[in-house]
Amino acid sequence: MAYDNILVEKRGKVGLITLNRPNALNALNSVLIGEVNEALAGFEADDKIGSVVLTGSEKAFAAGADIKEMSSLTYMDAYKGDFITSWDNVSRFRKPIIAAVAGYALGGGCELAMMCDFILAGENARFGQPEITLGVMPGAGGTQRLTRFVGKSKAMEMCLTGRMMDAQEAERSGLVSRVLPVDELVDEALKVAEKIADFSLPITMMTKESVNRAYETTLAEGVRFERRLFHAMFASEDQKEGMAAFVEKRAPQFRNK
Ligand code: CAA
Known catalysed reaction(s) (predicted)? Predict the structure, then answer.
């Protein structure tokens, strides 16, 4: 399948999606989002894919929603077309997905990265929600997800002033899991994704589902949900294999069952 705004590759068990609109710093227009969703649907359906990396260029992961496409929208266009809701597909992707962010991750770019399971950042990464400077506010989950990642004070300051965070501050604040040299970022993200893809796929999917549940529920309900999935794992062949391999002092051969 050929795409105009993204590059899609398979690296062994890892799917790699690279946002590729260099002339617009990977600004997210409706065509690009449609392509990302199509690529993700392909990876979701592909039994050989165990995880995905989503990245951009060294200068920009994505500089936000496409302002030129968005500027003439009316309220009725936005409401009837349910503007931006289709972006949420990324947060509903069921296999593990890592954002590898170098350069600008602004507005919808920051929001897209936060929809992934975790963010690895290049040393030059800059995160921000500058929508306030355009006369709007974040519309792809930024006011909610950024607040959960970095807490109210920083999220409020960023959303109300448009101030950007650099990679070090983003790591200190819990927005990104690690900061890496820019030229090693994608390779390291692929290595991490490969490690995840080598585990049992249903187990990594359930693990992701359980961690994500922490954002949607109370502690008691979340722990109950975790317990149910944990118990269910004992019905999988991979639990038997993983534990037998430990006892027999050999590497496990997960069968994704
Ligand atoms: N939409 C459309 N085009 C964009 C864009 C965007 N979000 N960001 C950058 N571009 C385009 C520029 O218009 C420019 O195109 P031309 O050469 O045709 O003029 C090209 O990309 C390069 O950009 P700059 O010349 O501005 O590059 P720079 O290095 O001087 O500045 C920048 C980089 C600071 C990121 C600057 O481009 C910028 O501020 N971009 C807009 C960031 C922004 O406001 N993002 C939020 C968008 S709103 C949103 O995302 C809503 C939501 O919640 C979903």
Answer: a 4-saturated-(3S)-3-hydroxyacyl-CoA = a (3E)-enoyl-CoA + H2O; a (3S)-3-hydroxyacyl-CoA = a (2E)-enoyl-CoA + H2O
